[in-house]
Amino acid sequence: MLAIATIMFGMMTGTLFIDLPVYFNTYRQLQTVVDSAALAGAAQLPHGIDEAQAEALRVAKLNPLQGLEDGIEADDLTFTADSQSLTVHASVDVPTIFGKFLCQGDCLFFPVAASAKALPAARDTMLVLDNSSSMNDLGNNRPMRDVKDAAELYVDEVEEFDSQSVDRIGVVTFNRTSAKRIGLTGKNDAGGFAAVKDEVQDIQTYNGSGWNTNYYVGLKEALDELEQNGRENANKHIIFLTDGAPNLPGPPTYAAYDQYNPLDYCLDPLHASPPVQNACYYQRYSGRWYRICPYLPSEQITDSMIENQYHQCGLDYVGYMDSLTQGQVQRAKNMGVKITTITIDDPNQASNSHAIIQRIIKDRSWDSGYLEYASSETGGESFAAAAYDSQQIAAIYEDIANDIHIKLVKVD
């Protein structure tokens, strides 16, 4: 009898050493299954609860589970969902290894259960809108009017899904300079999202002449607000829309010239290299510069002097613009702010300032690349739409609003 008892004790001990590790490993795997299913499913909640549950089931079935050859099945899962959250509960019976030698029935399996709940993370979003004069190029305040309607749709989409009041939105406009129209505002703040939409609809295009597309000031204004008033636990996001290539800021010494074209500075004899400065001055007639050299015979001043001076001056201008604008992108990256960019353009409306910069720096292929740089450096996306396609512009904002960030929370 003692021998039999010893054998039985040994088998039970073997069961503990073999089956318990299997149990805990299966539990860890099952928790991973419900975590990934809850996260994937909750991301589909803007499209409906049925869609969210279907996605959760699809993802759950992709994950292997030790002890179950066929993995997890639909009958192993239950869901609890509303428009704001999704809870996934899984329960499976895993065969024991040694249990079949010791007993029959239920003891041949051990039950393993796990649960996970996912819901949207808080968002602090700044809408940054180009309101330079070209935003009225289509007439009747278009495409500015279409952009405002699309931005308002974005606010509506966020508000519809924000029953837990975790989102806040602010608005910045930029042209030559920038303006914070409204700081980060949530549903329960003074004025709520209605105040945000009112500020969007009050935006007017800038009426000044000359170059007035300054990405740098728009980004800086938005980042200042996120830095000063953004919440530590919120996902921070800038949605940056423009219809034109950047042409500002120029170096401070160019400031007196930027009412029309900052690069006029490069042709001013007061700032030219000495041979040109001493020999010539420039006069604009009908939008064109003419070189007048009354002080020296014309053969003593060459076109190459003018060309080299103008070329280097243009490179300095672009280098300064690069430094400031890309610096704000790096600031966003360091702050953990994602930048999503939207470009709207009209193929029939070429950018005059863009062509001037290309000509001056002798690079017809030059493009600032700021938008792609901003999105790629910060983990955002880049979108493009035709300036006259109001439906496409609206669809982009709607897609961004529904691209929610999900987090796991403790199951009640």
Task: Describe what this molecule looks like in 3D.
This protein is 42% helix and 21% strand. It has 412 residues and is an alpha/beta fold. It has two domains: 2-120, Pantoate--beta-alanine Ligase, Chain: A,domain 2 (2-Layer Sandwich), CATH 3.30.1300; 123-251 and 297-409, Rossmann fold (3-Layer(aba) Sandwich), CATH 3.40.50. It is elongated and about 95 Å long. The two termini are 50 Å apart.
Topology:
Elements: H1 2-42, H2 49-62, E1 77-81, E2 86-95, H3 99-102, E3 109-120, E4 123-130, H4 144-161, E5 167-174, E6 178-186, H5 192-201, H6 215-229, E7 235-242, H7 274-279, E8 281-285, E9 288-292, H8 303-335, E10 337-345, H9 352-360, H10 370-378, E11 382-386, H11 390-402, E12 406-409
Parallel strand pairs: 4-5, 4-7, 7-10, 10-11
Antiparallel strand pairs: 1-2, 2-3, 3-12, 5-6, 8-9
Helix pairs in contact: 1-2, 4-5, 4-11, 6-8, 8-10
Task: Provide tags for this entry.
alpha/beta; 2 domains; 4-stranded antiparallel sheet; Rossmann fold; 412 residues; 42% helix; 6-stranded mixed sheet; Pantoate--beta-alanine Ligase, Chain: A,domain 2
